[in-house]
Amino acid sequence: MPFSTRVRRIASPKTALTGAAVAAATTGMVLAAGPAQAASPTVATSASAKATAQKMIHNDAQFKAFSKIVEHESGWNAAATNSSSGAYGLVQALPGSKMASAGADWKTNPKTQIKWGLDYMNSRYGSPTAAWSFWQANGWY
């Protein structure tokens, strides 16, 4: 068999695979080489994290203060990581692993992060409103 025929035979599956990859990409599918791996748990959206906090914090003033801190610290992103300090999560715990005291799912569960953050604010400052006052005076809490 001539060399050019062998090259075409080798190239044809590659061309087909490239075409499939382009088609998959345009429909939102992902093609990956290698064995399949379980997807990591997804972190809740900022809206659902905020709704969870509102259910957990019954006092409106305390919720508003907690929300302001979280908005400034992480933008309600439960996976937010500070690249310079390593602080993690909604309330930017440093190190993030501190939140394990509230639950083993601290990396992915906003409810666990909220629980830890509320406990921290209450024990260190007395309340989320007091923590917010400190944050306003210092730019951190």
UniProtKB/TrEMBL annotation:
Residues 65-130 form the Transglycosylase SLT domain. InterPro entries: Lysozyme-like_dom_sf (IPR023346), Transglycosylase_SLT_dom_1 (IPR008258). This is Transglycosylase SLT domain-containing protein. It comes from Streptomyces aurantiacus. Keywords: Signal. The keyword Signal applies. It comes from the Bacteria. Gene3D superfamilies: 1.10.530.10. SUPFAM superfamilies: Lysozyme-like. Pfam families: SLT.
